[in-house]
Amino acid sequence: LHKEYRRQRQMCIRDRMCIDAHASEQDAPEGTYRYFLQETWQPARMRCSYGLLGQQRQSGCWTTLAVISPFSDDRAAVERLAKLCTTQQLDPVHLFDVIHDFLDQEAASV
Q: CA 63, 28, 89, 110: dihedral to nearest 10 degrees?
């Protein structure tokens, strides 16, 4: 049962990401990269955690390049990070460094 539940939840997350990506196409930047919040439900902790989904425009279509596992429980902060990465057109090669800095700041504020 756990395996089936997890699979269903993953499909819901994937579907939500597809819907969000499609809905925000009109808000898509003119640049090459865009980033989205990725929400993951963690049944053991009874809450959601948040990561990032990074995409690149290739031949007029958006292709997923990076899926960063949940690294924060702060939805608003991860949404701001995704918006900043999109606005600054962050190349995904630098994404782990940016997340590392984000986590350092998050830890310092606690």
A: -100
Q: Tens of pLDDT along the chain (110 residues)?
A: 455 545 544 444 444 444 344 445 545 555 688 998 888 887 776 788 899 999 998 888 888 989 998 999 899 999 999 999 999 999 999 999 999 999 999 888 87
Q: Model pTM greater than 0.85?
A: no
| Count of beta carbons in the 10 Å neighbourhood of residue 53 | 20
Beta-bridge partners for 34: 55
User: At CB < 8 A and 24+ separation, what contacts does 75-79 make?
Assistant: 75/37, 75/39, 75/48, 75/50, 77/102, 77/106, 78/37, 78/50, 78/51, 78/52, 79/37, 79/50
